[in-house]
RNA sequence: GCGCCGGUGGUCUAGUGGUAGGACAUGAGCUUCCCAAGCUCAUAGCCCGGGUUCAAUUCCCGGCCGGCGCACCA
């Protein structure tokens, strides 16, 4: 780990932001516990997200269980698609995707859907060798590795359940209920902040790749034909865009406004462009250094199979770019899958302005003919006729029509099918919404903010470390100190502390050691303001308020202090204007 | 999952085949009093298991954890 990451994890552990889980038992890779500072910081980031992406957008929020039954992930594709087949080289120990080796060496196109045994046999048949060292891999076991954590629901063997690998499925699966709640009116957005779990092969880099992590996801359901985002609200926001084309041809990040990006077609999807415009000021609001930030478009080969386009918000920490958010278009992939697997209706009914008349082929089979003719199969023949009429009305042009039921052809005189063209009135249609998905990794944002807010400077010749966290997300808003803990100063300071807490402020009280040391303690956890009770306080009921970033102090009357500090926290008042 | 390197108080580290020393931090006290001052005292450590040995924190093996590289990251 390079310097930035090292000093960050040192500070995080020492000051209670985050640390390895269950270190007493040797720890466990890929799991981190947020300490007192970190948990509050994370809460504040989530609150800021909720404010911007739920409350102010008028979306709704849900909270679904972390464990879902197997069927959900069969439908979503995670059960198969989240499964990697690995084969290890006996010589050099390199680990390879077995299905990829087979696809490269044979004309098999979709080895991923085959059984591991079958893939192993193909490796032997085609004498596939280790790409790293050339040793034959025949006979080496092909092992499946699914990135989902499995569990059982209920006693005994129970039924299979999985910890969700993304919070999104908890939204998609409930779509019928949520659409009903939204009174079947598109567009609407459903958000969820919650934990997701992936049994990563190799967790790395502190909070960046972990096995249990918090996502803040928004699924915005839109009518693909009609709905347009309110681009004008964000048209002037500047986006640092690193397009797929730029990545492939040695280009660089381009600064374009949302309006320009759409105009030039750099961001093809207006909804994605809209959310990039919403998100950009938000990152700045929570303390991301926008000079170490970019939007990177997925390369064609990187795209998920359901995604037409995807942009990641990336932040630079330690020389690496961290994927902090994915802005994806998922089209109707998930809703279609759940509709297919569950048999439920994952669409909304869109009423036309005016009902329209349409001609529709219908059949009304004469069962007194079909019954005697086909016996028990008569019902199925009738169904087959109905679906044929829908698909291919021209089939009924002749004297007879033939349908297949269970591989048996049945021929029916057209006049017995009751075929006709009927004029019906349609008052609307079923629309399957498309989904725009901004998906935020909360832990990665917390990590970024800590890294980007880490500052050092000199105060009276002494080096100082402080976290320049925005007051809104700082875990503690104000430190309260008596200049000395005697002559009644401590009691006065306790009064101030109580008053500030009662006003809903996050307060840290500290009376240990010298005043300078207490300032430095609060600096290191990013507390933006400190209030000190001194001898003047006893006479004139004022205190000093000290600003973290400038270390400047101002005298402020105790009366009105809670309101002043709240205004400072909420950004309604700047310290310089005190 | 593989390879290389590593693991000593809360943190950073010194050192050793005979179980450890410092700095910072923390707590108590004195002192000082608006930016990590000083003094005294105190708390606190050799990742886990097995082996070799009279004796293992030290050497060997395995595990766990971490860093880096490879692979992986719908």
- Biggest β-sheet description: 9 strands, mixed
Fraction of residues in β-strands:
25-35%
Subunit organisation of the chains: single chain
- Mean of all residue-level pLDDT scores: 87
Structural class: alpha+beta
Q: Stretches where pLDDT falls below 50 for ≥5 residues? A: none
Which fold does the CATH topology of the largest domain refer to?
Answer: BirA Bifunctional Protein, domain 2
The end-to-end span amounts to 42 Å
Helix percentage range: 25-40%
Q: Which geometry do the CA atoms define?
A: elongated
Over all CA atoms, what is the radius of gyration? Answer: 31 Å
CATH homologous superfamily title of the largest domain: Bira Bifunctional Protein, Domain 2
Broad CATH class of the largest domain? Alpha Beta
- Domains, number: 4
What is the strand tally? Answer: 28
* Strands ordered across the widest β-sheet: 3-10-11-21-16-15-14-12-13
Number of helices: 19
Known CATH architecture of the largest domain: 2-Layer Sandwich
């Amino acid at each position: 780990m390079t310097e930035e990451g090292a000093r960050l994890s040192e500070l995080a552990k020492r000051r209670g932001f985050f640390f390895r889980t269950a270190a007493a038992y040797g720890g466990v890779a890929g799991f981190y516990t947020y300490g007192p500072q970190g948990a509050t910081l994370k809460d504040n980031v989530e609150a800021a997200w909720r404010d911007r992406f739920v409350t102010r957008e008028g979306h709704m929020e849900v909270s679904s269980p972390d464990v879902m039954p197997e069927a959900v992930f069969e439908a979503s594709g995670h059960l198969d698609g989240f499964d990697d087949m690995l084969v290890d080289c006996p010589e050099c120990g390199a680990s390879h995707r077995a299905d990829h080796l087979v696809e490269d060496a044979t004309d098999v196109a979709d080895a991923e859907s085959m059984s591991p045994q079958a893939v192993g046999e193909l490796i032997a048949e085609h004498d596939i060798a280790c790409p790293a060292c050339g040793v034959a891999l025949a006979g080496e076991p092909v092992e499946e590795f699914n990135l989902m954590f499995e569990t059982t629901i209920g006693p005994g063997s129970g039924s299979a359940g999985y910890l969700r690998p993304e919070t999104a499925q908890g939204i998609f699966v409930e779509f019928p209920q949520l659409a009903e709640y939204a009174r079947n009116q598109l567009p609407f957005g459903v958000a969820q902040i919650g934990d997701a779990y992936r049994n990563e092969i190799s967790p790395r880099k502190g909070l960046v790749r972990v096995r249990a992590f918090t996502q803040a996801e928004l699924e915005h359901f839109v009518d693909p034909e009609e709905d347009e985002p309110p681009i004008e609200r964000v048209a002037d926001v500047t986006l640092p865009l690193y397009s797929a084309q730029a990545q492939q041809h040695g280009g660089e990040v381009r600064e374009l406004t949302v309006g320009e990006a759409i105009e030039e077609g750099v961001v093809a999807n207006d909804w994605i462009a809209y959310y990039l415009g919403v998100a950009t000021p938000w990152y700045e609001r929570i303390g991301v250094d926008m000079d170490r930030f970019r939007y990177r478009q997925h390369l064609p080969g990187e795209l998920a199979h359901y995604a037409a386009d995807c942009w990641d918000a990336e932040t630079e920490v330690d020389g690496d770019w961290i994927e902090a958010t994915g802005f994806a278009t998922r089209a109707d992939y998930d809703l279609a899958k759940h509709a297919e697997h569950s048999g439920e209706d994952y669409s909304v009914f869109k009423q036309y302005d005016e009902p329209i008349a349409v001609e529709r082929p219908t059949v009304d089979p004469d069962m007194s003919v079909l019954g005697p003719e086909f016996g028990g199969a008569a019902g199925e023949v009738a169904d087959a006729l109905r679906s044929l009429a829908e698909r291919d009305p021209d089939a009924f042009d002749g004297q007879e029509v033939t349908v297949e039921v269970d591989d048996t052809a049945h021929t029916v005189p057209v006049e017995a099918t009751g075929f006709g063209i009927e004029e019906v009135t349609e008052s609307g249609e079923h629309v399957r919404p498309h989904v725009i998905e901004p998906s935020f990794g909360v832990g990665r944002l917390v990590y970024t903010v800590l890294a980007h807010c880490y500052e050092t400077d000199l105060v009276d010749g002494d080096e100082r470390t402080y976290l320049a966290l925005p007051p809104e997300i700082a875990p503690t808003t104000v430190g309260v100190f008596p200049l000395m803990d005697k002559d009644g100063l401590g009691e006065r300071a306790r009064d101030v502390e109580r008053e500030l807490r009662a006003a809903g402020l996050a307060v840290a009280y500290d009376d240990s050691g010298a005043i300078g040391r207490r300032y430095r303690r609060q600096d290191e956890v990013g507390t933006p303001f400190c209030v000190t009770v001194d001898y003047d306080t006893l006479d004139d009921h004022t205190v000093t308020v000290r600003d973290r970033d400038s270390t400047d102090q101002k005298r402020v009357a105790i009366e009105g202090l809670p309101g002043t500090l709240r205004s400072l926290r909420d950004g309604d008042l700047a310290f310089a204007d005190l």
